[in-house]
Amino acid sequence: MIDSPFVVSTQYLRENLDNPQLVVIDCRFALVDPELGKQQYQASHIPGAHYLDLNQDLSDPPQQHGGRHPLPEPQELANKLAAMGVNFQETLVVAYDNSRLAFGARLWWLLRYLGHDQVALLDGGWGAWQAAGYPVTDALPTSNPGTFVPKLRQEWVVDIDAVKVRKDLSNVALIDSREADRYLGKREPIDPIAGHIPGAVNYPWQDVTDAQSYLLPLEEQQQRWADIQRQTELIVYCGSGVTACVNLLSLKLAGIHTGKLYAGSWSDWCSYQQ
Prior knowledge:
Blueprint: E1 7-8, H1 10-16, E2 22-26, H2 36-43, E3 50-51, H3 74-83, E4 92-96, H4 104-113, E5 119-122, H5 125-131, E6 157-158, H6 160-166, E7 172-176, H7 180-183, E8 201-202, H8 218-224, E9 233-237, H9 244-253, E10 259-262, H10 265-269
Parallel strand pairs: 1-5, 2-3, 2-4, 4-5, 6-10, 7-8, 7-9, 9-10
Helix pairs in contact: 4-9
């Protein structure tokens, strides 16, 4: 188990499920079947867990440009969090999914982007909770509303214009988080154009965890970034700004705090190339 404020174990969560200063959020989702995550949640989830949907809650509707998963409107997300009982900078939010942190990390990053640092991911996710034999339920939670007034860290996000200007500077590294065959343009299952942004280096997001969704040890997280840790600015992207958040988590675990998200990512970049 990694010793980090960004991660909690299933045992910790089990022991703190009744803590009024803790809110659990289920982020399960499937890109190929957008209804599946919510159906899974409705069938069975961690007791007390709320649900946030990648398309409906953690993203704005896509437009011509801006990528497939534009960042959600901050106040709308803040209102949803408050309704779940999250108090700004007080309540610990624990997020989980069943996809190697792909969607939980999006919420982890978004909360911190909104200025709320009290957020952690469940190491091993839903699979680890089930494997431990801990209780599950289909009951929907109730909660006392909280107060959540976001304080945006706007400097954490870059758009296509900033990427164009900064990507070739000597102190900047542009990181493509997709699997190698998509980075190389050998396969593109989602976006209309294959390939990557010129100058980008490839650090697949799946390398942050093992096959069971457990984070790799801190030493391995640090080792991953050894070649670019001296760069003063790291711009991270993926297909649509979702799984890039797993790499941003890895950077934070490695003690590197210069990572920024190109929120529109490859889906935004190639929308200008057609």
